[in-house]
Amino acid sequence: MFGSKGVGGNMRRLLVLGVVATMLAACATKYSQEGFVGEGQAQGVTPAARADDVRDIVAAVRSQIFACWKPVNRSIVAVRIKLNQDGSLSGEPVVVNYGDSPSQAAAASALRAIRLCQPFKLPVAQYRFWQTIEINFVPQ
Fold it and tell me: Are 95 and 78 in contact (CB under 8 A)?
């Protein structure tokens, strides 16, 4: 569905581990509420297929934001975004760092990348997995 080809080795990298954690939590809540947990298959889709979908979505978000992001220093920035089904922002992105506060320049750089890259091209069929996501911007 989405390619996961990497970008050149000398370039900065964007880690989106927060995206995975948020999406997996959403999946667990959704399937638990619908009674799918422990049933082996949910609507004819195996757990491995759902994991592949999440992996593809993470790769898509990573590649799209990576193209717009220019890190300004070594600060790590975590941002929560809510998206419409067309991939556009449904509200303002929120910096949600849980540890050290990022520099204002680093936070501004991350927010700028998100605004520039939208609307994100993501599969509408999996909207419930990417409606709200957290992105960790980690310069390397």
Answer: yes
Task: Please state whether the predicted TM-score (pTM) of the whole model is above 0.70.
Answer: no
> For the chain, which domains are there?
17-137 (3.30.1150)
pLDDT digits (tens, 9 = 90+) for 40-70: 333 444 444 477 888 888 889 989 998 999 9
d(CA 138, CA 14) in angstroms, rounded, equals 6
Exposure class string for 92-106: b at 16+ Cβ within 10 A, else e: ebebeeeeeebeeeb
Distance between CA 121 and CA 28 in Å, rounded? 24
113 Cβ neighbours under 8 A, 6+ residues apart: 65, 68, 69, 70, 137
Phi-psi region of 19 (alpha: psi -120 to 50; beta: other; left: phi over 0): alpha
Note whether 113 and 68 are within 8 A (CB).
yes
* AA identity, residue 121: K
Give the CA radius of gyration of the chain. Answer: 16
CB atoms within 10 A of CB 30: 14
